[in-house]
Specification:
Elements (H helix, E strand, L loop, with lengths): L6 H12 L2 H6 L8 H13 L10 H10 L14 E2 L5 E2 L6 E2 L6 H10 L7 E3 L4 H9 L19
Antiparallel strand pairs: 1-4, 2-3
């Protein structure tokens, strides 16, 4: 799997997003290749795997590609956090799925703050990653005033 999507892959994603699910299942592109084969290729590249023998999963593959946000793949600066190839993090109860292709540093920090055991899914972490997630867990207010004791004084 490549770290960044090339123009051809981005164009394929845009095409899949523009098509109806029935069109994807039944039709072919101008070169005669089925749209479904494009779905399998993209899903494997983006999320690390497909089962082409599992028809019940095809609609999920299509939906995941349609929900994929390409803007996150255009990184102009070096990422501090990089996931291992083929690994994904699915956020339970949502359609959010993160892989090496759509993970930003801010999202990585948040994911590690929620569960530091996810560090095994990363190929690259900065040395101070634990400090960064602590800042997310325990933000310090800028105008923090010491709290007054709520204990009542006992009069004699």
């Amino acid at each position: 799997m490549n770290t960044y999507l090339n123009k051809k892959d981005r164009d394929l994603i845009t095409l899949i997003k523009s098509l109806d699910s029935n069109e994807i299942l039944k039709n072919k592109d101008s070169a005669g290749k089925s749209y479904l084969s494009h779905v399998f290729y993209l899903h494997k590249k983006l999320f690390g795997g497909v089962c082409s023998y599992c028809p019940q999963k095809i609609k999920t593959y299509i939906q995941r590609i349609k929900n994929f946000e390409m803007k996150k793949t255009k990184n102009t600066t070096e990422q501090k956090y990089k996931m291992k190839s083929g690994k994904v993090i699915h956020i339970r109860g949502t359609h959010e799925v993160y892989s090496e292709h759509n993970l930003t540093d801010d999202v990585a920090i948040q994911l590690l703050a929620e569960n530091p055991n996810r560090k095994v899914l990363f190929a690259k972490l900065p040395e101070n990653w634990e400090t960064e997630i602590q800042e997310v867990k325990n933000p310090e207010p800028e105008n923090a005033k010491p709290e007054k004791s709520k204990a009542k004084e006992v009069k004699k």
